[in-house]
Structures are given as C-alpha cells and as structure tokens.
Amino acid sequence: MRAGSGALGSTHLNIATAATTPVYRRARLTDLDRVSSIENERFGAHSYPYFALRQLFDLHGASWLVVEVEGRLLGHVLVALAPQRRAWLLSLAVAADSCGRGYGTALVEQALRLCGSLDVGSVLITVRPTNQSAMNIYKRAGFEWAAHDERYFGEGEPRDVLECRLGR
Ligand SMILES: CC(C)(COP(=O)(O)OP(=O)(O)OC[C@H]1O[C@@H](n2cnc3c(N)ncnc32)[C@H](O)[C@@H]1OP(=O)(O)O)[C@@H](O)C(=O)NCCC(=O)NCCS
User: Fold this and answer.
1) Which residues contact 114 (CB under 8 A, 6 or more apart)?
2) What confidence tens digit (pLDDT) does each residue in 136-147 have?
3) Is the beta carbon of 22 within 6 A of some atom in ligand 1?
4) Would you state the CATH architecture of domain 23-165?
5) Where do the N-acetyltransferase domain residues begin and end (predicted)?
6) Could you tell me the pTM of the whole model?
C-alpha cells in the first residue's frame, strides 16, 4: 500500500488495514523522545539535540508533522513558517527500519499541503547534494534547485537549497 493513500480500496478485505494505515498528524510534546531517537539514528552528529527539539517545538510545534503506524512514530517533518509567505522544511527523517514504504514522500506531500493551507508561497529545504534518496523525493514533489553553498553548514558540509513554489 502506498503510505500516502490512507486505506485500501473498498474491494479489498484486510482485517489489518485499520491498524496498519499510517496516521499523519501534528507532533505532540510527548513525541519528542521518539523524534529525538529517529534524529540521532538518521543524522548522527548532525541531529538536533533534545534541547533544540524542545525549543523548536515551542516555535514550530503547530506545523510539525509526524507519521505513526500502530501507535509507533516512524518519521517526522519539521515545517518552520517564515516571513514573506515562506516556509522551511528544517528536518525530514524516517526510521531506518521503515524506509522505502513511501512515508518520506507522504510526509513531504503533507507538509506542502499544510503550507498551501497556510497561504505559504515558497517552501525551501537544504539537502546534501549526494543525498539522492531525499533529492528524488523533493524533485518528485515539485522542488527545484535554487542555490548551492559549499560551506552551508561549515567546512565540508555543502548543501543545495531547493524551492517549491506554491500557487495562490
Ligand atoms: C530521506 C528519507 C526521509 C526518505 O524516507 P522514506 O520513507 O524511505 O521515503 P520513501 O519511501 O517515500 O522514498 C524512498 C524510496 O522508496 C521508494 N518508495 C516509495 N514508496 C514506496 C513503497 N510503497 N514501497 C517501496 N518503495 C517505495 C521511493 O521510490 C524512493 O526511491 P527512490 O529514492 O529511489 O526514488 C529517509 O531515507 C531518511 O530519513 N534519511 C535520513 C535522513 C535524511 O537524509 N533526511 C533528508 C534530509 S534533506
């Protein structure tokens, strides 16, 4: 099942459907421990420390999305609203044992939908140029290359900046 589809078609009979259907919802304060462990697992030394996640929650909790399946949080996308109808996707991560099932794609789609509903005109994200998996997701979702900074996060940490323009 595509992770973004929500449920199987009505012609299918699958008693596991309701339990395994991914739920996309706003993050809660009680999610931060799990978000923190996914961040550590996926970003290592580049993950947000817990104290930063806590502060980001105070700033951007209302636009922070998570995906959960059978009550287990599997991934998150942190959307930060910015001036001039802009938004940044500050983090996107899916637990390693749950990758390749469409959750990352669906989180980005949900984030863009949320931004559209909030009248955001431009959504931005930084991505390591060699991160092909993430790059594919963003390109398919409508992001285009906007800039490159060889030292975006300091020496040896180049990033591309991608932008997705949302229509009015
Ligand atoms: C990047 C990341 C978020 C992707 O999450 P994901 O849940 O694996 O993403 P998806 O499943 O939607 O897509 C990944 C691949 O699985 C494929 N896929 C999508 N739905 C699928 C499904 N239902 N079944 C099997 N494969 C599927 C996609 O085609 C994609 O393949 P491609 O990159 O070769 O085109 C995840 O790998 C991650 O957390 N990486 C580490 C952190 C990171 O790099 N974050 C981005 C920073 S900019």
Assistant:
1) 63, 65, 79
2) 999 999 999 999
3) no
4) 3-Layer(aba) Sandwich (3.40)
5) 22-167
6) 0.90
